[in-house]
Design brief:
The chain is mostly helical. The protein contains six helices and two strands.
């Protein structure tokens, strides 16, 4: 896959809970190739470079998967903004909450559809988590004082 294809696939596969930017992907692909975890594939249209995972890359990925769990840090720009929402004017706060609520309401529709359609026993709990996370964000937005 090319970097653009990887970004699109990542957005479809786990965009509900993990964001990937083009700049991150394009920065890391050459580093992974230099480390022997990826190999260069065909050069495509507009000089796009394809990459393929190597056996060493598969081993490294499996080692990462099998590593100890732990607690994930919460890194949400919206939560950070809401933490400081008292510094905003009433109009600014209403705009922040309103636009965020609309976006999360749309995301909830998509997350529910994905969860309903998921039959894989490992992906299903993740899809259900995505629904619960979006619901929690909507609950947080509903709890922000309007005054």
């Amino acid at each position: 896959m090319t970097g653009g294809q990887l970004v699109a696939a990542a957005g479809e596969q786990f965009g509900a809970f993990f964001s990937v930017t083009r700049s991150q992907v394009y920065r890391e692909l050459p580093v992974l190739a230099e480390a022997g975890l990826l190999k260069l594939g065909k050069v495509g249209a507009r000089a796009s470079q394809q990459y393929a995972i190597t056996a060493a890359g598969r081993r490294s990925f499996k080692a990462w998967l099998a590593a100890d769990g732990g607690v994930d840090p919460l890194r949400s720009p919206l939560v950070l903004r809401l933490l400081h929402a008292g510094m905003l004017t009433t109009k600014q706060r209403a705009h922040l909450v309103g636009t965020s609520r609309e976006a999360y309401a749309e995301r909830l529709v998509a997350a529910r559809a994905a969860a309903r359609g998921e039959s894989d026993p490992y992906r299903k709990p993740v899809a259900d988590f995505a629904v619960a996370h979006v619901r929690a964000m909507l609950k947080l937005l509903d709890a922000v004082p309007e005054e």
